[in-house]
Specification:
Blueprint (H helix, E strand, L loop, with lengths): L1 E8 L8 E4 L15 H11 L29 E9 L11 E9 L4 E5 L2 E3 L1 H8 L16 H6 L3 H11 L2 H137 L1
Antiparallel strand pairs: 1-2, 1-3, 3-4, 4-5, 5-6
Bound molecules: adenosine-5'-triphosphate.
């Protein structure tokens, strides 16, 4: 794995697109003071995701954007792309070349791209995590840092040498694992608390469940008893209905018979009335004849 090229555009002292190509082995950039040599290493650091403006010798991150000079206008955005040769597969991606691009504009809007695809800073850091590249990896030792390293406390120097020897990533991994372990322990403690609380709630819940079951059983039995009662009463009512229907039929028959005998009585009454009328007429005729006879007898008596 080695740095294959750097392309700068609008970054610090590189207003126009500038591409620097490197082969395997040592590359030396030579130039007069202030010509932009350190800006190249800043560009590498920046493209790898550096978040501190101080680390790239600025006050704010927008200071990396070309600010104008020598009749050249300031640029609105800075862009750096570094291409890493990954022929040896040091970066665990099935790609022969890894391109990392970072862009930033004056409003603070920026983006990262991995082999042209838009991504997040964490994705860049993830890709670089096992390579010894990236921020805080000391893969880029900037000007002035050598003196700081030489005069640093043995403890800090040891850290730095460990980082440079590639132990840093293991230390970071151990730290990550420790944090993960602590988080897992926390989660476990929380889960145990939850379990304890759930257990304490379980007893009353069990009692409630038993009461609910009993209630359900009694309710079922009540419904069955009501159903049984309703069936019995329906049976009784059906029997009463049958009896009532039989009584109604008998009453209807008796009514028909009574009506028939009533008809016969009416016929007999009519004939009796007729006979009575006839006898009344005979009686009246007899009364008349009797009175005539009496008058005749009276006349005869008078004549005598
Ligand atoms: P030395 O050999 O003295 O360390 P150097 O070659 O490393 O110098 P750098 O420090 O990389 O030089 O570059 C400094 C130059 O970059 C300065 O001239 C400065 O004006 C220019 N520069 C830095 N930031 C910007 C910017 N945002 N816009 C324009 N020019 C910039």
């Amino acid at each position: 794995m080695h740095l294959k090229s750097i392309t700068l555009k609008g970054f610090k002292s590189f207003p126009d697109r500038t591409r620097l190509e490197f082969g395997a082995g040592v590359a030396v950039i030579v130039g007069p003071n202030g010509s932009g040599k350190s800006n190249v290493t800043d560009a590498v650091l920046w493209a790898l995701g550096e978040q501190s403006p101080l680390a790239v010798r600025g006050q704010s991150m927008q200071d990396v954007i070309f600010g104008g000079g020598k009749g050249i206008q300031a640029r609105s955005e800075a862009e750096v792309e570094i291409v890493i040769d990954n022929a040896d597969g040091a970066i665990d991606l099935p790609l022969g070349e890894i391109s990392i691009l970072r862009r930033l504009d004056r409003s603070g809007e920026g983006e990262y791209r991995l082999n042209g695809a838009r991504c997040r800073l964490v994705d860049v850091l993830e890709v670089l995590s096992d390579t010894g590249l990236g921020k805080e990896m000391h893969s880029v030792v900037s000007q002035g840092r050598i003196e700081a390293i030489v005069t640093s406390r043995p403890k800090d120097r040891r850290l730095l040498i460990e980082e440079a020897a590639g132990l840093g990533k293991h230390r970071k991994r151990r730290r990550r694992a420790q944090l993960k372990l602590e988080r897992t322990q926390d989660n476990l403690d929380r889960a145990l608390d939850v379990e304890r609380e759930a257990r304490s709630r379980l007893r009353p819940l069990k009692r409630q469940a038993e009461a609910a079951e009993l209630h359900e059983r009694i309710e079922r039995q009540t419904i069955e008893a009501r159903w049984e009662l309703a069936r019995d009463s329906a049976r009784e009512r059906r029997a009463a209905l049958a009896l009532a229907e039989a009584a109604a039929t008998a009453a209807r028959t008796a009514r028909d018979q009574a009506q028939a005998s009533l008809g016969a009585v009416a016929v007999r009454r009519q004939s009796a009335e007729r006979a009575l009328e006839e006898r009344s007429a005979v009686r009246e005729a007899l009364v008349r004849r009797a009175s005539q006879a009496r008058s005749a007898a009276d006349r005869i008596e008078l004549r005598l």
